[in-house]
Amino acid sequence: PAAAPTPAATPAADPAAAPTTEPAAVDFAPGASEPVAPPAESAPITPAQTAEPAPATETNTTPSHPDNMPAPSEPIPAMPSSGQ
Q1: Is the pLDDT of residue 79 over 50?
Q2: pTM summary value
Q3: Which pick of 47, 54, 70, 71 has the fewest CB atoms within 10 Å?
Q4: Within a 10 A sphere around the Cβ of 27, how many other Cβ atoms?
């Protein structure tokens, strides 16, 4: 019975702390999420584009496996791991 009232008191303190944590987390979350989101998207795009130009060179050597050769050429550890 004593445990029941204890949890009930916890939620009461939660709302009080929520307002203080909400503004701080909201200001920090959006601010850090915004700058982090753009760079994060740009990073994945860079490696993806790098693989495209690379295939062009490999395509010359392997026109039959232009998608298979260039792709594995970049992510060698990722490709072999997936194949195995």
Answers
A1: yes
A2: 0.09
A3: 47
A4: 10
